[in-house]
Amino acid sequence: MKVNKVIVPIAGLGTRMLPATKAIPKEMLPVVTKPIIQLIVEEVENAGFKEIIFITHSSKSSVENHFDNSFELEATLEKRVKRSLLKEIKSLSNLKVSIQSIRQGHAKGLGHAISCAKTIIKKESFAIVLPDMLIADKSKNNNLSKLKKEFEESGLSQILLGKIGNKELSNYGIAKVSKNKILRIFEKPKISKAPSNLFIVGRYIFTNNFINYISKEKNKVSNEIELTDAIQRFINDSNEILFSYLKGKFYDCGSKLGYLKAIVDYAIEDKTVSKEFKSYLKKIK
Ligand code: UTP
Q: For the chain, how many structural domains are there in total?
């Protein structure tokens, strides 16, 4: 069963990163010189998907602009003979994946954001990639591409799970698993209630019928339409979800600490600043 479409929800308000995110979407915050959303689009492109659907908000037009042509900038770079920069900028509007957007009028929760793509998804299977969860893997054979392969071979829904320490359990959806199957999801549980140390990293692939399990009702505790509630209903209705383990590092760029860790690690990897940056880090007490 083929999967080509990826929903990338970017309509959240990013309150944990305020005031930076008052006028700038959190997805446009840079990790060294690339905005987070560019790294996410590269991951999706490397995994071999064909279409991205951004779920957006009126304040997020800079994300759409980032992947559009910029004639004035390109002409200036050409005039100044900045060839490699020009190539990089041109490639942003010349991706192997197509991008389209649909608005989520009100940020009613992640589940609601995903349901906004229903008219574009039609009868197809689809992936979901959460852009604030950055996975450090630039290869074509990345975590998402393996998840895609598993889905296409088995025809069963797939979720990527990572391992975390006890302190962070209450920030994420935590999975109860048996063999290679997900049995239950606990949304942001207390340590005492968490069934495992396995959290949802923000990479999912679902068979088309999943979209019908997203409720119109808000969760009574969070007051949002939750994706995890839909996942639980889907499982309870005898739909199987398999999981794979995350390989490599992840960064929760929606949080201050995760974002800072991403910048440090990506700067260390950046050939143009790596040496000097490392020697600067060594000097910090
Ligand atoms: P988060 O809860 O992490 O993002 O949602 P947020 O609401 O933007 O951030 P905080 O908690 O206020 O700091 C996970 C993903 O789902 C999207 C967000 O943009 C983020 O990528 N989202 C969330 C929507 O698109 N719509 C929503 O109504 C809620």
A: 1
